[in-house]
Amino acid sequence: MKITFLGTGTSQGVPLIGCDCEVCRSTDEKDKRLRSSLMIEDGGKVFVIDTGPDFRQQMLREDVKRLDAVIFTHEHRDHIAGLDDIRAFNFSMKSAIDVYADDNVERALRTSLWYIFSEEKYPGIPEVIMHRIDEHPFTIGQTKFIPIRVMHHKLPIWGFRINNFTYITDANFIPEQEKEKIYGSEILVLNALRREQHISHFSLGEALEVIRELKPRKTYLTHISHQLGKHVDVENELPPNIRLAYDGLKLTV
């Protein structure tokens, strides 16, 4: 299974519009972060977790030729806004795209991208096949997804475990019963927004505490804001088994 980090930034991305801090002015490509999203290639199929506003740019950068399914963590705009651009895959693959979402996400999609679901469809609009997800595992092709319910302040959202790989973004609390689904992961991806505490995201210190408890072999931090610091500086502070993810990073799991 191949993993590609399509984006590792927070909702505003890095650099932040109008900001002159050293991170936003950095010339290091690892400090340039599009909105958080992940691509999984497994068994000849391609899946994307979340289609944020940068989805088109991410697909072009990675030269993606097919897309078999989109899986959503939650309904915030920085995770759903790019769904319209799947229509390029509708055209090239001559098929609708499977979309896996809970009822909150589907409601948001039907509101913000209402034309996709209209009874009278305008030619060329995105074509989707909706699949409802809940706490039960589901399989796409040969790939099994185990949903993990985490909290984004007061909003319940989804993380996912796929084999020995676990992906969690936009969380600031993981219930004890959900941690049981994570134990034994070889690779954990976890959000770490900034150094200071935040109402709905793990801070760097909080993320490190969670990692110490869950004990994955390797962890990659994502959903990073400009407030965390420059990539090279933060990496130098971290233990060898914890790294900052960056846009375009590829893993084989």
Notable characteristics:
253 residues, 14 strands, seven-stranded mixed sheet, 7 helices, globular, alpha/beta
Structural summary, described in words:
With 253 residues, this protein is α/β, with parallel strands linked by helices. Strand 9 and strand 10 form a beta hairpin. The model has no long low-confidence stretch (mean pLDDT 97).
Write the SSE topology.
Layout: E1 2-7, E2 37-42, E3 45-49, H1 55-61, E4 69-71, H2 77-80, H3 87-93, E5 97-101, H4 103-112, E6 128-132, E7 138-140, E8 143-152, E9 155-162, E10 165-168, H5 176-179, E11 187-191, H6 204-214, E12 218-222, H7 231-237, E13 242-244, E14 250-252
Parallel strand pairs: 3-4, 4-5, 5-6, 10-11, 11-12, 12-13
Antiparallel strand pairs: 1-2, 1-14, 2-3, 7-8, 8-9, 9-10
Helix content: 10-25%
Task: Walk across the major sheet and give the strand order.
Answer: 6-5-4-3-2-1-14
Q: Please state the overall shape, judged from the principal axes of the Cα atoms.
A: globular
Mean pLDDT: 97
Q: What's the total number of strands? A: 14
The radius of gyration computed from the alpha-carbon positions, rounded to a whole number of angstroms, is 17 Å
Strand content: 25-35%
Order of helices and strands: EEEHEHHEHEEEEEHEHEHEE
Largest sheet: 7 strands, mixed
Q: Spans of 5+ residues with little confidence (pLDDT < 50)?
A: none
Kindly name the structural category: alpha/beta
Distance between the termini: 5 Å
Number of helices: 7
Give a quick precis of the structure:
The chain has 253 residues and is of the alpha/beta class. It is built from seven helices and 14 strands. It has helices at residues 55-61, 77-80, 87-93, 103-112, 176-179, 204-214, 231-237; strands at 2-7, 37-42, 45-49, 69-71, 97-101, 128-132, 138-140, 143-152, 155-162, 165-168, 187-191, 218-222, 242-244, 250-252.
